[in-house]
Amino acid sequence: MAGPEKDPPLSRSIGAFFGHIVDAIVSDPGRKPEAVEVRKETTEETRPDGVVLRRTVIEEVVLPPGTEAPKAAPDGTKAQN
Predict the structure, then answer these.
(1) Cα separation, 78 vs 70, whole angstroms
(2) Which residues of the chain have pLDDT under 50?
(3) Between vectors from CA 66 to CA 63 and to CA 70, what angle results, nearest 5°?
C-alpha cells in the first residue's frame, strides 16, 4: 500500500519554474507550422421555434516549416503543374 503523496521540495519547484522560463526564452514562437485552408463549408437551418442551427466545417492542411504551400486553382482544387 502506498503512503500519502508528499509535495515536491521547494528546490524542485523553483528549478521547474526556471526551467519553464528558459524553455520560453530559447523557443522560437515564429516557427510554427503554416495551416492552409482547403475547404470551408457552412450550413444554416432555422427551426420553427426560432432556433438557428449553424454548422461550419473547416478543412486545413498543416505544412511543416519551410514548405511552400501549393497553388490553388480558381475553383479551389489543386492546380496542375
Answers:
(1) 7
(2) 1, 79-81
(3) 55
The pLDDT tens digits for 11-33 are: 999 999 999 999 888 887 776 66
Distance CA 1, CA 10 (A): 26
pLDDT the model gives residue 39:
86
Give the global pTM.
0.36
Determine which helix (DSSP H) or strand (DSSP E) holds 20, and give its type and residue range: helix 10-26
- C-alpha grid cell, residue 8: 515536491
Tell me 5's DSSP state. Answer: P
Closest among 43, 61, 64 to 53, alpha carbons compared: 43
Look at the block and give the residue holding cell 520560453: 24
**In angstroms, rounded to a whole number, what is the distance separating the alpha carbons of residues 11 and 4?**
20
Domain ranges of the chain: 31-74
First to last CA, the chain: 66
